[in-house]
Amino acid sequence: MPGSGLSGHSITRDGSPAPRDPDTISEIFSGGDHTGQLDPPRPGPRDIFRRRLNLKPWEYPELARYVDSIRHSYWIHTEFNYTADIQDFRVHVTDLERDVIRKAMLAIAQIEVSVKTFWGDIYQRLPKPEIGSVGYTFAESEVRHHDAYSHLLELLGLNHEFGTIHQIPCIMGRIRYLDTTHRAARSQDPREYTLAILLFSLFIEHVSLFSQFLIILSFNKYRNLFKGISNVIEATSKEEQIHGLFGIDLIRIIRQEQPQWFDQEMSRKIADLCHEAWHAESEIVHWLFQKGELEFLPKALVLEFIKNRFNNSLRSIGEEPLLEVDPAMLRETEWFDDEVITTKHGDFFVKRSINYNKRSRSITGDDLF
Length: 369
Description:
Elements: H1 25-29, H2 65-71, H3 83-91, H4 95-114, H5 116-120, H6 122-125, H7 129-155, H8 169-186, H9 190-208, H10 210-223, H11 227-257, H12 264-288, H13 299-316, H14 327-330, H15 334-341, H16 365-368
Helix pairs in contact: 2-7, 4-7, 4-10, 7-11, 8-9, 8-12, 9-11, 9-12, 9-13, 10-11, 10-13, 12-13
């Protein structure tokens, strides 16, 4: 397990010892190999699309932190115990709740099948060794996600459900807009590839899975169920957040280097892509709650939650938010960002605990003794 010099152990949701926590973000980003010891970038304007053969000096040393963030957060699904989760799924939920969990797991697994190649191919279009290192690191984490959800589907007896994916209109709608990303990624036009990064990072990595993450983790927060699965969800959600943040940084860099690309036409395309993605993701939510709503998490809250993530994604790259949200309803989902995505210091990169401590769910006296 990497990170042998890391701080002490914490406890997972199922009570088993968790791997060690990472160094803090300040420790990761200060000193070491990635800051303070770099040769200065070569003179002249940077061009992220221009091929560089030499390893050093790096032109984008600020991106190296993303490799560290994944390395320090390394996890595999076999670290967690799912025995209680199987019993929870079979016995401790209603038929309606079981249907919601089943659909959420299928929707997550389908995305994980579809996205493994994007990051691994990014060096072909942004040929800088430091960017390639991030892409390959992310691609490996996507494989771990895929393996984790494949394992969970098997444990819950849902393998056969994948045979019906093509019969579900909202899943096929999501696949169609995922295919938009793949088509743009194959384009030789750098502006089209920029749109591919934007769509993939902001709307797929930053939004697509998060309605399902919210739903499954709400079972743990409000019902104290699915502790093992919740560990996987927390681990995945933090890494998807890191992937999305990297994409945001890439878009910001491209915007600095090629400001003329980000004109009204580009904003119109971004808005169209956002509306297409919002339609696809809202249809997924309606399908998840097709048989009824959860007492502790109404459908309307989930829709507001993902609208807010779309808006935040747009703001992060300098675009105007497009979807109207209800601030009062959003406050009811703040626990997700407070307890799952962020840490005490709002540090997205410190994640090795996967919030495997008591902060990762509502605490009562029974939890402490």
